[in-house]
Design goal:
The chain is α+β, with helices and mostly antiparallel strands and 144 residues long. It has one domain: Heat Shock Protein 90. The protein is built from 3 helices and 6 strands; from the N terminus they run ββααββαββ. A 6-stranded antiparallel β-sheet has the order 1-2-3-4-6-5, with helices on one face. Strand 3 and strand 4 form a beta hairpin. Helix 1 packs antiparallel against helix 2 and helix 2 runs antiparallel to helix 3. The mean pLDDT is 90.
Length: 144
């Protein structure tokens, strides 16, 4: 049974997820529909989904450590100036320093199994900010 809770507001949509990776599959359709409705170009929607689900996965695995007592909040909003889709993913973890994450393109890290989520977000989104001591990531996608 899905625990995805979608709460539309006047200027944004907030989605609350349990700290379980199954939630990602449940939210992908909502993300895709919202991005399409907000006018993101069709060829960019799949990359949008990759970046946002990476942020959600990091929040579940690293932030909340899959604790059933913690949730992940995803806030979707749109701005006209500049025309952009904004996504904030917030966990209830301890936070982290994003600059402390090893470069996944460094030769020592190429064969490591993980460590590419932030790299992907930074290379897909038009802007990435880490807020609240690393407990929240804000991704911006400009409509072009």
């Amino acid at each position: 049974m899905s625990q995805v809770s979608i709460q539309p507001q006047a200027d944004h949509v907030e989605i609350r997820l349990m700290s379980h990776l199954d939630e990602i599959a449940r939210i992908e359709g909502h993300l895709s529909a919202w991005a399409r409705e907000m006018g993101l170009q069709a060829e960019k929607i799949s990359l949008f989904i990759v970046a946002v689900t990476e942020a959600i996965s990091n929040a579940i695995l690293h932030g909340n450590r899959q604790s059933p007592q913690k949730e992940v909040r995803v806030r979707l909003s749109y701005s006209n100036l500049p025309p952009a889709l904004a996504v904030e993913v917030q966990d209830e973890g301890e936070g982290f320093n994003p600059e402390s994450i090893p470069d996944p393109t460094h030769q020592d890290n190429l064969l490591k199994e993980g460590g590419r989520g932030i790299f992907l977000m930074r290379n897909i989104a038009d802007n990435v900010e880490f807020l609240e001591g690393g407990r929240c990531v804000r991704l911006l996608f400009f409509r072009k």
